Amino acid sequence: DWTMGAYREQAIAAIKEQVGDAHVICALSGGVDSSVAAALLHEAIGDQLTCVFVDHGLLRLNEAEEVVGMFRDHMNLKVIHADESELFLGELEGVSDPETKRKIIGRLFIDVFQKYANGIEGAEYLAQGTLYPDVIESVSFSGGPSVTIKSHHNVGGLPEKMGLKLVEPLRELFKDEVRALGVELGLPKSFIGRHPFPGPGLAIRCPGEITREKLEILRKADAVYIDQIRRHGLYDDIWQAFVAILPVRTVGVMGDGRTYDYACALRAVTSVDGMTADYYPFTHEFLGETATRIINEVQGINRVTYDITSKPPGTIEWE
Ligand code: XMP
């Protein structure tokens, strides 16, 4: 009789056996996989685990505080908040090509992680939230699209380079099992059920050049949009929802004045695995109400559009 409770005990025993009294470091992204891996390792080895949360300045509103706060203050994990937003945003200045953005972010992510990890005394293991499908994919479609999607989080080659051994406590699990294990470990259901968020973060939701101004506007608009979706009880019916800020200003009227502000696009899709997706059929009432709220509540946006492209031919992200 297989239960998640029994699996948890077995996984904890396996981690203890593998790691012994060595120290483990883990890159915590706030995503489900790395969060559940960190929570499980913490149960198994407590203070022998140190997590590094790399903050690239491309996170959603309050995200860094929420993730770090939850793990550090509520779960008592050792978490280093590596606030390197100045570094990332500086290197991204003037860059508009999507793949160049990804490469810069991926390279800096590894540099930053290494820098902080080197400061942790006696680390012997690197923990990764690799799932069973990742194990299969990296074997069968090596170099294919499913691998590049994960490219940012895939710190392939890093353990050897850093002289670390790997510990991958989720290697036997599928996504839904990881979620169940997370709940079993006491992570909040709302956290476990969060939509996927790409490694390069808001960089790929800001087509064209990234500026601090655009990021700030985008964060606010995204927060209003997600709040609308939650208020209408739609969050769990949607695979992923977000706002993209468009690299164009448009003319509008507000009160007696003319405005010249950014346009944004709302995105929401249903999907099983992110490989194909359908746009979500919001009601016009919902869309109208959301547009009004964003324009009223977010200074810097005066036009809201809804993206009705499915995948294929579109991608989920705008870049
Ligand atoms: P696309 O836009 O390719 O996205 O339809 C499919 C899924 O992958 C996520 N995504 C990424 N995740 N690094 C990531 O970690 C990336 O560079 C990246 N690009 C897309 C996207 O959010 C969606 O869930």
Automatic annotation (TrEMBL):
<keyword id="KW-0547">Nucleotide-binding</keyword>
<keyword id="KW-0067">ATP-binding</keyword>
<comment type="pathway">
    <text>Purine metabolism; GMP biosynthesis; GMP from XMP (L-Gln route): step 1/1.</text>
</comment>
<dbReference type="GO" id="GO:0005829">
    <property type="term" value="C:cytosol"/>
</dbReference>
<comment type="subunit">
    <text>Homodimer.</text>
</comment>
<keyword id="KW-0436">Ligase</keyword>
<keyword id="KW-0315">Glutamine amidotransferase</keyword>
<dbReference type="GO" id="GO:0005524">
    <property type="term" value="F:ATP binding"/>
</dbReference>
<feature type="domain" description="GMPS ATP-PPase">
    <location>
        <begin position="2"/>
        <end position="194"/>
    </location>
</feature>
<dbReference type="GO" id="GO:0003921">
    <property type="term" value="F:GMP synthase activity"/>
</dbReference>
<protein>
    <recommendedName>
        <fullName>GMP synthase [glutamine-hydrolyzing]</fullName>
        <ecNumber>6.3.5.2</ecNumber>
    </recommendedName>
</protein>
<keyword id="KW-0658">Purine biosynthesis</keyword>
<keyword id="KW-0332">GMP biosynthesis</keyword>
<feature type="binding site">
    <location>
        <begin position="29"/>
        <end position="35"/>
    </location>
    <ligand>
        <name>ATP</name>
    </ligand>
</feature>
<comment type="function">
    <text>Catalyzes the synthesis of GMP from XMP.</text>
</comment>
